[in-house]
Amino acid sequence: MEFTATLLSLVWGALIGSFMNVVVLRLPRSEDIVFERSGCPKCKGKISWYDNIPIFSFAFLLGKCRNCQQKISWQYPLFEIWHALLAVYIFSSWITFSNSQWLEAISAFFIASIFSAHILIDLRHQLLLDKLNLALVPFVLVIVAINESWFDAGVGAVIGFGFPLLITWIFYLLRGQIGLGGGDIKLFGILGLLFGVKGVLINLFSSCMLGSLITIVLMISGRVKRDQYIPFGPYILITALIQLLFPDIFAQWQNFLIPY
Ligand SMILES: [Zn+2]
User: 76 C-alpha vs ligand 1 centroid, how far in Å?
Assistant: First the structure.
């Protein structure tokens, strides 16, 4: 990609990342995400526009609030940098795809961005918010429309939603406990729409495997207890991010699991 395009992608990514920081902070508390001016979460002081420039302001202020001098979380600049990298990666690798390449790239970028916000909120609040699940739908539909994969997407959505629901229901009948939350099940439905039947089944299998592996490691190292609640959403979403961003790597994994 040429220099100007790379620079524009970086700026675009950092700006959206800055907005998504606000989403991660305010959406779980049902606060306004568009019209309310940014304030320091510690002293509640309003932040001027020049102290609110993605990545740079954090560096200029040496990571401290101008008003109260308390530390600003590293999460803010890191999330902005992550979005800037996402933008450069997605816009540079999608451009050769098809005539609707820009529309597809922008949709993929927003899907990756919403996945990322979903991960942070689930880790902090153990919540997969309906609003974020819903926000994914229009971008996913754009990609389905461009690829004209309506049938696979439709069946994928039904299986993605129905299969985890069935497992959860059987688990509930046997153990009297809820296995997967409603947010997880809805997310699987949307992933079915995005990745189709095979894609969502592979995600289900891979995220269970990833989750089990990491949970066993955390239990052995004594960082979580046996009966502690562990959010499952991040594993689904990390798997989905790899599926979205590295389709070639995932296709190899898929062929290894389902070789027909
Ligand atoms: Zn402050």
Answer: 14
**Which pLDDT score is estimated for 95?**
59
pLDDT at 185: 94
Residue 92 located in a structural domain: no
What is the number of domains present in the chain? Answer: 2
Q: Which of 15-29, 149-163, 211-225, 238-252 has the weakest average pLDDT?
A: 211-225
Rounded to the nearest angstrom, the distance between the alpha carbon of 14 and the centre of ligand 1 is 22
Last residue of a domain, one of 51, 84, 117: 84
* Cα-to-centroid distance, 45 and ligand 1 (Å): 6
192, 158 Cβ separation under 8 angstroms: yes
Q: Are both 214 and 121 inside the same structural domain?
A: yes
Q: Which domain holds residue 184?
A: 97-260
pTM above 0.70, yes or no: yes
* Mean local confidence (pLDDT), 19-39: 88
Do 121 and 127 form a contact (C-beta atoms < 8 A)?
Answer: yes
Q: Which two tokens stand for residue 131?
A: 């609003």
